[in-house]
Every structure is written in structure tokens, then in C-alpha cells.
Amino acid sequence: MALMKHFLALLILIVNYQAIACDGFIFKTFPMTSAEKVAKAIKQNLSDDLLTPEWRQIKQESGNQGNKYFGQCYVSSEAFYHLMGGKEVDLVPQHLPTEFGTHWIVFNRKTGKRYDLTRPQFKETPNYSTAVNAGFLTKLPSKRAQKLILKVLETLRK
User: Fold this and answer.
1) How many CB atoms lie within 10 A of CB 129?
2) Which of 17, 94, 134, 135 is the most buried (most CB within 10 A)?
3) Which residues on adjacent β-strands are paired with residue 21?
4) What SS3 class is residue 32?
């Protein structure tokens, strides 16, 4: 049943968007859509089901249960990167050290702007000067990023 629901969601997206197929996962890039609009839709759709088991445990143990941004930097950066067009539009993933471990952001080489979609999780602004260029663990969107991308596409469709 869940597979059928996923298939129907993808079918709806294909009908409503000019979708791009990529190794079995279909998604729409939004390089012409405002980055702020995509970022807002990502933030609206963050939920604990997108956390890895490790980050679920860290969130619980650190007392951050009420912080929806905590532990979501990787998946939100990955979804943003792919939705906005990735390296084709000069975006590059970056990471930097924080008190809880590695923090992920997306850097625009053309404009010099950094997109830190989960900045609100921190009391103080991270030291972005320590950010280094990196690659995501997978070339295509991970399963968690696919799940978030589907939620974001649905939000942007409204």
C-alpha cells in the first residue's frame, strides 16, 4: 500500500511538473524558483522521521526534542542542493564542525551566499569560515532526501 501511495504521488508530480527522471527517482529542479521559497518549503517539511536513528538518539539525549531543526542539516542541504539544480547552478555542499558534530550547508559559488537551512538550531551562529567543500554520501538524492523532496514538491504545488 505504501509503495502504491508513493507511486501515485510520483505520478501526480509528473503530471503537474516537468519532472526529471534520475535512476528511478523522479524530481523537479527549481533553478528558476527563488531559493528562499524552496528553503521555506524545506523548513516547513522537516520532521523527525527524516532523522537517522543516530541523530534521533542524539536529539533525545541532548534535550533538543522541541527543536525541529536539530539534526536536519544534512537532509535539508541535500534536498535544497538537488531541488535548486546542484553543481549545474554552481552550488556546492559544505560542512563545518560544531559542538554536536558536522554541520552541513550549501554554498553558491556565483553569489557567495551560504544557505544554512537549519541555522535556528544553534544559539550562536556557526563559524562559516571553517566550512570546507564536500560531497554528499550519494550522487543522487538519498532516500531521506527523496522523502523530503516529495514533501517540498507537494508544498510548492499548492
Assistant:
1) 6
2) 94
3) 26
4) coil
**Residue 85 in grid coordinates:** 539544480
Cell matching residue 157 = 504545488
> What cell was used for 120?
535556528
Query: What is the Cα–Cα distance from 44 to 22, expressed in whole angstroms?
Result: 25
Mean pLDDT for the stretch of residues 136-148: 92
Could you give the residue ranges of the DSSP H alpha helices within 2-158?
2-16, 35-44, 53-61, 73-84, 143-157
CA distance 124 to 81: 24
pLDDT in tens, 2-31: 544 454 445 444 433 434 444 445 555 555
**Sign of the CA dihedral with 107 first, then 113, 116, and 122 last:** positive
**Who's near 96: CB < 8 A, 6+ residues apart?**
102, 103, 105, 126, 127, 128, 130, 131, 132
Question: What grid cell was written down for 19?
Answer: 519532472
